[in-house]
């Protein structure tokens, strides 16, 4: 998966594999989270929001999608 660098105080980059629906988030402390079964629109939305951390917290509370 190709990681896209993002502007965030906590998140370093994000990657998405559309064929498997895996969203991967690499944090600045090098921890990695993977979410399975993520629709493509969630990845597109994630790339476009200003606050990546806020988006992740809100989505995570609802199981990402």
TrEMBL record:
InterPro entries xrefs: KTSC_dom
Superkingdom per UniProt: Bacteria
Pfam families to which the protein is assigned, alphabetical: KTSC
Domain KTSC as annotated: residue spans: 7-62
Protein name, as recorded: KTSC domain protein
Natural source organism: Klebsiella michiganensis
